[in-house]
Give the backbone structure.
Amino acid sequence: MFDTLPKTYDEAKTWDWPKFEPFFADLEARDLTPETVDQWLRDMTAATTVIGEIMARVRVATTQNTQDAEAEAKLKSLTKDLMQPMQVVVTRLNRKLLDSGITPDNYEMPLKRARAAVEVFREENLPLQIEDQQVGLEYGKITGAQTVEWDGAEVTLIELMKSFKNPDRAVRKAAFDLFADRWVQDRQAINAIWSKAFDIRKQMAKNAGFDTYRDLIWKQRGRFDYTPEDNATFHRAIEEVVVPAAIRARDRRRQRLGLDTMKPYDVDVDASGKPPLTPWVSIDGFAETSGNVFDAVDPQLGAQYRDMLAAGLTDLPNRKHKGPGAYCTTYPLTAKPFVFMNAVNSDGDVRTLIHEVGHAFHSYATRALPYEAQRAYPIEFAEVASFGMEMLSSPYLTTANGGYFTESEAARFRIDHLESIIEFWPYMAMVDAFQLWAYDPANDGGSPDACDAAWLDLKARFEPDIDYTGYDAYKATGWHRKQHIFRYPFYYIEYGLARLGAVQLYANAQKDQAAAVAAYRRALGMGGTGNLPQLFGAAGLRFAFDSDMLRGLIDVLEGTIGELETAL
């Protein structure tokens, strides 16, 4: 029966729930025994991957053109009429497996996640999930339409950000003024979106029997290896160890620029006063050069990347009405990943592409696992795959290796990259602490004014040295500019934890690059079959986030920065 399921997306895209329903009914009707459970899981995987492909393709379409009303309507209808009926049945199937008492081989962690998913599932939350998704799309529409006039042309804000690296401070300030004003123009619209999303999420938590949305998310995301209190411990460690290091990095830049104060338009410019790096001439050339870098890291990884390119599974350049940011998703039926980004010929393009392709390598690595639930790796380790690739590729960025930069340019790029890691941890702590604050019932998290005040408190705690005089509204609404708060709530601590792993991986690679790459690939191949300490351990890393861990990593980063400065 299951061999009649669609084999390609072209076959699958016209299928609706009535066509899929008999397959799931068959799974529900079967007896589960230790002898039959393997085929049962394989058949469930076959059915869910087809639906997963349909949903992934439509989600991608809504980000490729935020004005595509047809794609938006299709996503809404498919979520309601295809994805959600599947969620209901899969919950029953997971309950059936749990009730059987059978633990399939290498399935302990998927079973643990299934138990948590069954416990939090409520049918009355399904329409609210659609509403929450719609709110995210509204945010994407607003940000995707943000353009300004610059140098006689209409440009997106992402394109405008290139000017923040201009050596001329007057140019940087003019660009930043436009950027800040354009964001503040949308202040009320984004506030309205936030209030709507907050109320939806609060109701979802109540429906599921939780006092806070935070507690619902913790269980829903399968966060078994750390608690909200651990997050707060991490924040304090960052405040103690990393904030002083970030201030040191910015102070070095300020002194080299000859400035009395560091303004927000001074944080991205090259401290030597050199023009910004432009790593590519054409977008196709950029894609090809990136393949050379991945070949140098590992020929098999390079082949996987070229497989994506050959299949047309990338959307790299920035354009008007394209969704913000970057991501990698998997087309599970096609069994290949897709990478989306907004390239504008800046050095950030290099980091972004390498990061997202790191996710793609994770997708390729899990294809050999037989069951879909085994391929569902925890987000915290998914980000080790991406940030780890940023670090593992760093020796191969020069033209001598087929890369993007001269030796001195590569040194500039790497210094900026390593300093950005140091400066990221405090920002990550701000975003995570903001969400912990917002969803605490003791606070007025649904009030945009209260959110502004909370954000300002966090800025004072984690970024005290940047002078925002004259940009009060822009500073207070900094939380508006992190799409995760609106579209992917509580998805940000993962980045901070993963960078702990990535810098450890880099330290290991300094001793033995080949061994570090092999451990990285071995851990990626585990998918979601281990917990976080096990996955980190397989990669040769330690899952810890206290002050001592951060102190050692800051020493590694600052030591490397000092060495690279001799190559400038």
